[in-house]
Amino acid sequence: AACGDDDEEAASNSGGKGGGAKVIATPKIGLSSSPQPSYLPVIAGPVLAGSKYGLKMTKGDVTTFDSSTTLTQSTLSGQVQIAGQSTVAQLLLIDRGQPFKIFATYSLSDDFVIAGRGDVKTIAQLKDPSTVVASDSPGGAGQAVFDAMLKAQNAGFLVDGIPKKVIIESSGERTSALASGDADATVIHVIQANAVNKEHGDVNIIAKLYGEVPNFMKEAYAARTDWLDENVETAAAVTASVIQSSRDLIASYEAFEAACKQLIEEPPPAEELQELYEIIKSNDIYPVDGGLTDERIQYMIDLGKEEGILKTDLTPDKVLDRRVMERALELVGS
User: Fold this and answer.
1) pLDDT tens profile 246-260
2) Which of 43, 79, 120, 146 could join 116 in a cystine, given CB atoms 3.0 to 4.6 angstroms apart?
3) Angle at which helices 253-263 and 232-251 pack, to 10 degrees?
């Protein structure tokens, strides 16, 4: 097709539902962390599957910010139109009265586990004052993941209640702490835990996020409500591309591997990638059906409240713009 034909076609097919009938070919998307294989659709969607829905995006059109704070400021100022970060971070913004709505998810779950070393083999041992536990900072995605696993295991306590913990924000650094013995247990990716186990042979997987916490919703896209009112079609095009890409990537390891090599700064070695692919394929990790359910959002709100992070009476109605997902599912055909 000649330049611009796709845009025209996408615009004319849209039926102008809820304003903003024309798709912005290159919407400004910002993320609070670099894309990883476990949530590859966040970038593979717009870049690899987007043209079908009127998008024309390259890897360089998606900006990674160094923190949730800078991403939020850039979205409020209009420098970014669509913000992707942990669902907890998005809920926190809405809880504080910022004019945002969540409209899609690109990562339901992840390959996170609670890993212990040596004698640390049970959830109960995390409460032992002699067990050093490395965790993410409060409000960080890592802590939400940790708390969700503790809840699913009926631990009777959250990360808050662990007596001896050290705050380490990056999962890579938490892995190093586990490997060096500076931490006896932590929350990291199973691939990272397996790497430490290959080296030391004494890592125990105590709990898993995938397959054990059914209603988790790890990451979400949100936008300013005034932008969404004008741009339902663009938001739906991005969302549809993420759903389509989720399906494409799960359908073939070759497609998954090629996309990782093309779009991820430092893709993991082949053996780890294969291992991760099997986990993604067999669990609800990529949002192949959209994934944005009231149950998931309610679960995340309840988790945030239990953690003491969310203060107001949030409901799915208050935090979601459902028009976008409805339109996106029409576009991809469910």
Assistant:
1) 999 999 999 999 999
2) 120
3) 120
